[in-house]
Amino acid sequence: MRLILTLSLMFLGFYTSCQEKNTIMDEGSEDLPYYQIPDYPEEYTSGNAVARMIDGLGYRYYWATEGLTENELNYKPSEDSRTILKTLNHIMGLSRAVKNAAMAQPNIRPTGESPTKYAAIRKVTLENIKVASDHFKMMKGDDIEQAKVIFQRGENTNEFPFWNLLNGQLADAIYHTGQVTAFRRAAGNPINPFVNVFIGKTGTGN
């Protein structure tokens, strides 16, 4: 029995090592949110409803970006299209805007330095999504009215109501996450076939 267990652990270690070689990851990478969608809340509130939409984005993004290699990151379906890596960078900016709205903070232009490597972009994006969801879950009653989209450039500030976040950055992030899913399939590395966006969990196929 011990021999079987030892051999199994050795195989698992070898498999994991091979996977890491085929996937571009930064040193020090850690477990990220949205491997699955969190349990749904017991009560229906406006904040919980928005948070659930954001959680859906997080789960989709997690699996759309899981296991990407250099081949997919550089892939684009046409000359005038974004590569997957540039699309991920755009989604990161959208996730920042969603988080800022949840925290009633401005989107400052220019944005300054941002991560450029795949693993770092993925980590920041998923963490932005999680922070946004957590803030919306805490909102009660009319609190959600404070979730405005604010743009600031120097001394100039423009504000938009929460509604613009729904049809703007949040919808756009979901849209582009779908693009990543389609692009990586075209590049030869489709997402895990056991991803279930309805249930919010990913099976193993066993």
Task: Detail the topology: elements first, then pairings.
Blueprint lengths: L1 H21 L23 H20 L4 H4 L10 H19 L4 E3 L8 H20 L11 E5 L2 E5 L1 H25 L8 E2 L4 E2 L4
Parallel strand pairs: 1-2
Antiparallel strand pairs: 2-3, 4-5
Helix pairs in contact: 2-5, 2-6, 4-5, 4-6
List keywords for this structure.
3-stranded mixed sheet; 206 residues; globular; disordered N terminus; single chain; mainly alpha; 6 helices; Four Helix Bundle (Hemerythrin (Met), subunit A)
C-alpha geometry: globular
Number of continuous helical runs: 6
Number of strands: 5
Query: What is the topology, as strand order, of the major beta sheet?
Result: 1-2-3
Largest sheet, strands/sense/barrel: 3 strands, mixed
Span of the ends, CA to CA = 23 Å
**Low-pLDDT runs:** 1-29
Tell me the series of helices and strands, N- to C-terminal.
HHHHEHEEHEE
**What structural class do you assign from the helix and strand content?**
mainly alpha
Summed over residues and divided by their number, the pLDDT gives a mean of 86
CATH architecture of the domain at 47-189: Up-down Bundle
**Broad CATH class of the domain at 47-189:** Mainly Alpha
Rg calculated over all Cα atoms: 19 Å
What fraction of the residues are assigned to beta strands by DSSP?
A: 5-15%
Spell out the CATH superfamily of the domain at 47-189.
Answer: dinb family like domain
What fold name goes in the CATH topology slot of the domain at 47-189? Four Helix Bundle (Hemerythrin (Met), subunit A)
Range of helix content: 40-55%
